[in-house]
Amino acid sequence: MTAPPAEAARTDPPASLRRLLVAPLRAVVMAWQVSLQARVVLTTLALGAVVLSLSAWLLLSQVSAGLVDSKRESSLAQAEAAFSEVQEDLDAASTVGESGTDPLVTRLVGSLASRSGSPSAYVVVLVGPISEGGGEGVTRSSIQVEPQSVPQDLQDEVRLRPGTWWTYTTVAFADADRRDGPGIAVGTRLQAPDEGGEYALYYLYPFDEQEQTIGLVARSVLLSGLLLMALVAGVAWLVTRQVVTPVRLARRIAERLAAGRLEERMQVRGKDDLARLAQSFNQMATGLQRQIRQLEGLSRLQRRFVSDVSHELRTPLTTVRMAADVLHDARGAFDPATGRSAELLQAELDRFESLLTDLLEISRFDAGAARLELAEVDLVGLAHQVVDAQRAVAERSGVGVRVVADAAVTTLADPRRIERIVRNLVANALAHAHSRQVQVIVAVDEHAAALAVRDHGTGLRPGEATLVFNRFWRADPARARSGGGTGLGLAIALEDAQLHGGWLQAWGEPGSGSQFRLTLPRRVSDDLRRSPIPLVPTDLGVGRPYATAANGAGTSDGAPPTPPARPPRHAGRKSPAPPRPGVHS
Ligand SMILES: Nc1ncnc2c1ncn2[C@@H]1O[C@H](COP(=O)(O)OP(=O)(O)OP(=O)(O)O)[C@@H](O)[C@H]1O
Ligand SMILES: [Mg+2]
Description:
- The structure is a single chain.
- The chain is α+β, with helices and mostly antiparallel strands.
- It is 52% helix and 15% strand.
- It has 4 domains: 1-31; 95-211, 2-Layer Sandwich (Beta-Lactamase); 273-366, Helix Hairpins, CATH 1.10.287; 375-550, Heat Shock Protein 90.
- It has helices spanning 5-34, 36-92, 101-113, 152-160, 208-258, 273-329, 336-366, 379-389, 391-396, 415-432, 464-467, 477-482, 489-499, and strands at 123-130, 138-141, 165-171, 181-191, 198-206, 375-378, 401-405, 410-413, 438-444, 448-455, 503-509, 513-521, 548-550.
- The strands form 3 sheets. A 6-stranded mixed beta sheet has the order 7-9-10-12-11-13. A 5-stranded antiparallel beta sheet has the order 2-1-5-4-3, with helices on both faces. A two-stranded antiparallel ribbon has the order 6-8.
- A hairpin with a 7-residue loop joins strand 1 (123-130) and strand 2 (138-141).
- Helix 2 (36-92) packs antiparallel against helix 3 (101-113), helix 2 runs antiparallel to helix 5 (208-258) and helix 7 packs parallel to helix 13.
- The protein binds adenosine-5'-triphosphate and magnesium ion (MG).
- Residues 424, 427-428, 485, 489 line the site of magnesium ion (MG).
């Protein structure tokens, strides 16, 4: 059964109250975290509150101690004077003709009580006749008070010893209209005439006036404290504003500079520290702008140069190629040395042509002219196709190549670019496999498709998993210069992967081989978060340290993530940060 509306309403307030309290608290915490101004104001307020509370406490305790002391002095003096007056009157009086001492004592005390004013400044309590043995007489008082208003200790002192005695007490009135409160009780023993026995006479002085004065002082202190706090908060806010406003301005300008608006500058007003800060900031921005422009110009020039040279070389290369083809075809008719030269010429021209093609491709990436031509790509089929195409090379170097895939893996991608990436990865693996097995692993999940090429050959030394993606980087340039590639393959592959919003990452360890993993989002617009294939191969022993893993993604030896080998340069293209290896699988 559900609770009736009335009950539901009854359980609501705590929740809403909590919400009511939590929201402002969160706002304060948030303000504390993000705003320097709020932090200064809150700190000043907190410290101000502590200082003010301490001074208020000191002031109030001193005022109340002073008030109580003077009240005690005056009460004791007044009570003692009254006691001796009553005793003198009693000594002079005679009870002859009266029915006893009681009426006489009562009358005298009555006359004392009548002087207390209205509302009465004190209460007169008469107890007696009393005896030292403990026998108590009747208690009479000018105003009805509770018996505990005269503490038992005081009563004992008065009964047992002569003189005037006092103590602090709580004066509790029988009348509900009058508030109980602290006070002082003074007492003495009176001797009635004509052997009429002894009486105990007490004066009770409530601290009403003192309490009122302390209350007034406390209220004034609180009010002035609050006003002072508001004033301090206002002053702190104003003062920090003067410092924080230029700092905020500098932050905004710095953000705009970082976003590429290099002409943004701070306004310089006056000659103070903040003006000098603005001046230095502007000088820094100008210096940065000049350097960035210079570098941009240089880089543009370099790219233009590479692009122009590559284009210019194409035409003569075509001519040379045709001539070389003729020579190559006719090499049978040459003497052996000339025939060999024709063959060498042909091989070097192949390399030259491939270098030129790569350079032109890189120029296209640099110019931001690379565009994706998307189609449905069957990654498993493509892997088989690439492996089959390189089967002859593999057999020549005695390497077995295997495609490992559980199911068909299709994704939307640019088939030409993906094929180029896989071709380079497989060719690299075959070149570094040292006659050991190479596997091409393909896997997919809901968000991403991945292809990894695993070899058990040379492996990568620490740091090389990032370096391999640099242009023209080769582990062994001497070997590469004579027979190997150009060192542009992985740089182009990384550009291709990033053009898809994907990752290309490397892992390697000397002696354990390496693994290069391409991860592509199922939809080009999706952000990649994880890959279906672990970057660090699962065929390694569990728990052993691994050497290097990155595409500029991060190293597995605890070093912080390194940035991508080259930042993406294409407008609107995402470059998701690949996860640290070993964390994701
Ligand atoms: N599987 C691998 N094992 C060990 N080192 C590798 C592997 N793949 C790449 N490398 C290293 O990275 C370097 C760069 O590779 P990249 O593919 O960019 O250039 P390349 O293969 O030398 O030339 P090409 O431009 O023809 O591909 C290689 O020269 C090699 O030193
Ligand atoms: Mg290569």
